[in-house]
Structure formats: C-alpha cells, structure tokens
Design goal:
Helices cover 14% and strands 43% of the residues. The strands form three sheets. A four-stranded antiparallel β-sheet has the order 1-2-3-4, with helices on one face. A four-stranded antiparallel β-sheet has the order 5-12-10-7, with helices on one face. The chain has a four-stranded antiparallel β-sheet with strand order 9-8-6-11, with no helix packed on it.
C-alpha cells in the first residue's frame, strides 16, 4: 500500500466521521481509527487518528499517531436505502455541476433563491456554487416544485452531489 493511499484513508476517516477503517490484504493489515478530540499543536481542537499496520514476520510494524484537523460536522445523516429508492423513482435530483461552496442566496442578508414548495422553470437561478473565488449561478434545467433542499447553506459540495429534490409533475 502506498503512502498516498494511507493519506486518503486518513482523509476519509476525518471527513466522514467514520470511527474505524480496516483493510486486510495478503501482505499486510492496516487499521485507521478516530479516537475523539485532543488538543492540537496550535492549541485548537484536533482529532487523533491512530494507524496500525501489521505485516508478516520479519517485517517491521508501523504505528504512527497523527494529528488531523477536526472535520466539519456532517450535513445530515444519509437517508435510508428504501427511502432513497422511493424518492428517486418519482423525483428528479438536481446535482452540483462542480466542486465548491454551496450558497442558497446571493448574500448573507439576502433571501434564498428557493424554498421548499417553490416552483422552478428552466433558466431560473436556483443557487450559487463558489469555486476558486468565482460565484457561479446555477440555473434549473427542468421545471417542477422543490420538495427538499439536500445541502446546507455555505457548506462544501462535491461534483455531482445532490442539492435539491424536484417534483417534475
């Protein structure tokens, strides 16, 4: 396993709130655990992640505690699988076209572009995604009624992350 893959595992644990990831292969076994809050070196809150690697006899073992920045709280728990299947069958999901920061309004003192129950038409601005200091207005490509807002205001979003559920009828 390469060092970059180990770093990716650490990032996964810190960003998602997973408490433990364990990978076992023929040559080695690696466990990445999140063990609560500790004081980071700069005086702020941090999250300690312990990595344990077990290799066959004759190979040295590695155990290296690392300080990681505290991950932002999760936006909301993922919906149950049955609910997701039911929702996806009758609703259309509007997804983020890019990585960035999701904003529901054009400014902190402005009202949101959309609320639950609002109607949209193609071409309507539905939100803003900020990427590299550029504020990109995202326009609707379908018409319908907003059923649910799936992303929190001013939160980071990934490419193709669901933002809104729309009832197209």
């Amino acid at each position: 396993m390469k060092i970059q893959e180990i770093h990716d595992l650490i990032k996964l644990v810190s960003k998602t709130g997973i408490t433990e990831v364990e990978i076992e292969q023929k040559e080695f076994k690696i466990t990445v655990k999140s063990e609560g809050k500790t004081k980071a070196s700069k005086g702020g809150e941090g999250e300690t992640t312990i990595i344990q690697s077990h290799m066959p006899m004759g190979m040295p073992q590695m155990q290296m505690p690392m300080q990681l920045p505290s991950a932002a709280p999760a936006a909301s728990p993922p919906p149950k699988a049955a609910e997701a299947v039911e929702e996806s069958s009758k609703y259309v999901t509007i997804k983020s076209p890019m990585i960035g920061t999701f904003y529901r309004s054009s400014g902190p003192d402005k009202p949101p572009y959309l609320n639950v129950g609002d109607s949209i038409k193609p071409g309507n601005v539905i939100c803003i995604v900020e990427a590299m200091k550029l504020f990109n207005e995202i326009e609707a490509e379908i018409s319908g009624t907003i059923i649910k807002v799936l992303a929190d205001d001013a939160s980071p979003v990934e490419y193709d992350q669901p933002l809104f559920l729309v009832d197209p009828s």
